[in-house]
Design brief:
There is one protein chain. By secondary structure, this protein is α/β, with parallel strands linked by helices. It folds into 2 domains: about 160 residues, Response regulator (Rossmann fold); about 140 residues, Rossmann fold (3-Layer(aba) Sandwich). About 45% of the residues lie in helices and about 15% in strands. The chain has 11 helices and 12 strands. Strands 2-1-3-4-5-11 form a 6-stranded parallel β-sheet, sandwiched between helices. Strands 7-6-8-9-10-12 form a 6-stranded mixed β-sheet, with helices on both faces. The N and C termini lie far apart (about 50 Å).
């Protein structure tokens, strides 16, 4: 039987196994090493993603590690990715901070025979096998619809985020798509936190203290910003519509205390868990080639994008997320 026919025969098994605990009975070994590369290993958000990775690794009995710089550093992330790729691991997951920078590195790893998938933040123009994460445009649309409701279709909006990061730019596009449908709603300002949550407090103060245009709402496009902007509103005794991102403890505090209107929550644990299980299956049931254009192959054995979903967190359901965090 040819290698391609062997893959075709195993495809139903692979599909059934991806989301099944039965995969843990497959012949994985501790010698299999998988790495999650991120732009900031100290980020609580990436720690949630890593928790999903670790749980899947425990079930599969394989080795995993979280790798990257200990503060936001796209260049450092790229260097760490290349260092790990040189070790020829069984597979790599990467959350891409700078798609232009990382694309050649991802392509080189794929061409060297290393399965690479993106999680959380994509490099869609690279040869990565598939992306596991949120539909980031939908994230922005979901937040934008809530903005329209809370502002009654009228008001000035500012956004705080790390400019240039692919997933965040895509979220902003989603917000703009809704804002642009309402002539009396305008995105009047943006601030770049440069990937450092310590910059968020000052950025929020600067936006809110401008005399013109008056800001009626702030949207946050990344996980660590919620607590800082919530604190600004508390200190300055301001009441603004504030839509945060994700469900870190400080953000949940702000929702419970009424300073954060709501937060669009992703599932980083699911990204790590599902990403590793699918990557480990690819190690067992090797593709005939990693350099095929799977995105345009009508008989591709792998998806282009695995949507792990998003949900709105507000005071009506914050306890669910608080209990999960415990």
């Amino acid at each position: 039987m040819s290698k391609l026919r062997t893959l075709s025969a195993l495809a139903p098994v692979l599909a059934a196994c991806v989301m099944s605990a039965a995969c843990s009975a497959l012949p994985h070994t501790e010698g299999e090493k998988y790495y999650l590369v991120v732009p900031n290993t100290k980020s609580p958000y990436f720690m949630q993603l890593d928790a999903g990775l670790e749980q899947a690794a425990g079930e599969l009995k394989v080795h995993v590690a979280l790798i990257g710089p200990d503060s936001y550093d796209p260049m450092g992330e790229n260097s760490e990715f290349n260092r790990i790729a040189a070790l020829k691991p069984a597979g790599m997951l990467v959350s891409v901070a700078d798609a232009k920078l990382m694309t050649p590195s991802i392509n080189a790893a794929i061409e060297a025979g290393i399965p690479v998938i993106t999680v959380d933040s994509d490099a869609d123009g690279s040869k990565r096998l598939f992306f596991v994460g949120s539909d980031n445009y939908e994230v922005g649309e979901l937040g934008g619809r809530l903005l329209e409701e809370k502002l009654n279709g009228e008001g000035n909006i500012a956004a705080i985020y790390t400019k240039g990061q692919p997933n965040l730019e895509r979220r902003l596009q989603g917000y703009r798509s809704v804002i642009d449908m309402h002539p009396k709603m305008k995105l009047v300002d943006t601030a770049d936190d440069k990937g450092d949550p310590t910059n968020v407090f000052d950025a929020a103060e600067a936006l809110l203290n401008k005399s013109t245009p008056k800001i009626d709402a702030i949207v946050l496009l990344e996980a660590q910003s919620g607590a800082q902007v919530s604190e600004v509103l508390k200190r300055d005794n301001l009441n603004k519509v504030l839509i945060a991102m994700d469900a870190l403890p400080g953000t949940l505090d702000g929702i419970e205390q009424g300073r954060i209107t709501a937060s669009v929550a992703q599932k980083p644990f699911t990204m790590g868990y599902t990403g590793l299980r699918m990557l480990a299956d690819l190690f067992l049931y090797k593709l005939p080639s990693l350099t095929v254009d799977f995105a345009h192959d009508p008989k591709s054995p792998i998806p282009h994008f695995v949507d792990t979903g998003v949900a709105m967190v507000d005071q009506s359901n914050v306890k669910v997320y608080r209990d999960a965090a415990k």
